[in-house]
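Hi R.,

Here's the chain you asked about this morning:
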Amino acid sequence: MLSQYFKFTSQQKTGIFLFLIIIITLQLIYFFVDFNQNEKTFPEETKWLALQKEIDAAKEVKYTEKQKVYTFNPNFISDYKGYKLGMSVEEIDRLLAFRKENKYVNSAEEFQKVTKISDSLLNVIAPLFKFPDWTQKKNEYKADKKEYVQKTFPKRETIILKDINQASQEDLIAIYGIGDALSSRILKQKEILGGFVSMEQLEDVWGLSPEVIAQLNSHFKVIMPSGFKKIAINDATLKELSQFPYFKYSLAKQIVTYRSMNGNFNNIEDLIKIKGFPVEKAKIISLYLEF
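And the predicted structure, written out as tokens:
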């Protein structure tokens, strides 16, 4: 029965033979021919690869080189620093209590005496200690110490304070750090205020540094002029209050309204209750007011 399936014509036999040859040929090609395409390389890629090698080499050096050791003054060890060094809480507290007495340890031995740390821990952390140079050369200083000879200095000349409200432009320019512009601003501010009542008001003059203000305080003081007239806060009109340099019109209006609804002001604390009042200037403002 099966033999009838294997009966082929001469053409069929030829076709089967050619098919087998094709299969064998493809198999041979598959095993012996390299189908991998040559990868294309670019000059930029070569540069990047070379740079990457340098980066990798630098990282390797960084990881292999020995970590740098930083020294420190053991007098200023914090809780966290002491914990990282291996000190116990009691040992750290002893050092902090010692420092609160404004005392310092000047050697590793003194450090151990105060903290009572073990010899093994001291041997580990002592190489990290760095004390001031003078503690290491204390004996040298003592040896070189000479007899103290008291020196006499010329008596410092007493500066007579002038009245800032009577100062002229020439008086102001004589102060180091003040020129024509700053002296003009000071005189203008005095004119606006109707006279200074406190040296603190110089801080409001634009351009005056703290150093220059200190110089002014060492040469001038405020003397209230005999004819200085204060503002009667409980009788002043809205116009009078709004003309006061430290009060804006809106604040002056609120003061008059508050006064009419709540009665007279007894002190500066009553004025501070008004919204928008310059509290930071309350001390100076009170010098201008009469309650």
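The beta strands are 162-163, 220-221, 231-232, 289-290.

Let me know if you need anything else.
M.
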